Amino acid sequence: MKNNIVDQVKQDDYLKSNISNIISFAKNRSSPKFSAFLDERQRMIVQEILNALKYSNYKFFGGVKDCDRVMLGTFPEGQPVQEDCFPITTLKLSYSDKNAVSHRDCLGAIMGLQIKRESIGDIIVQDKFAIIFVDNDIADFININLDKVGRANVKVTVTDTIEVQKKQEYQEINGTVSSLRLDCVVALLLNKSRTIAVETIQANYVKVNHQESQNVSKQICEGDVITIRGKGKFIVEGPIKKTKKDRFFITINKLL
Prior knowledge:
Oligomer: single chain
Largest sheet: 6 strands, antiparallel
Strand content: 25-35%
């Protein structure tokens, strides 16, 4: 675990240095500069850097609206921020409905081509096809080399994002907890005892707002995002209400 923490610190330091360079490039040159794809945790770190440097001519974009994985685009002062400048290609993977594929199948197949995760954006799986946002530099390589995902034979084509719609479905979870502590909320989400919840948190299986937390007494608020490894991502909805028995009634949406 200690090695994992050290590795994470190194990765964060590299990210901060890289983002600072990207911002500096946009300030001093006449052309925009873009990062690799960022996950939600990395995006929070990048946002802190942007705020600290008081840099405002930027945009986070992943190919369509509301992507989880996005690139940072920094633009020179006075230049309009344009989504069509981002080096993102939208690929469509078509396959027979006899062999349905999952998000994991698509990601595994692409990374099996020795492509780094940072070059891959969101993956949207729909009926008979999947949409994948990728860095322009690897689009042709995937187009040529990817012919199978899971058990399905696939045909890869470049498509227009105008026809792409990201539809996020949720499962609503309602319940009461004695406290808004993390262990109480995780117990509700797992439908297990607080003892199991504490063990899950202390095993580093839980993230709050995209950052690992082993603090079982951490207070949870409306809008917090809780991720439990192997169980999914959950968003705490509001308002949180107190019951007559001095408990807290909460509504949580599980992303499907």
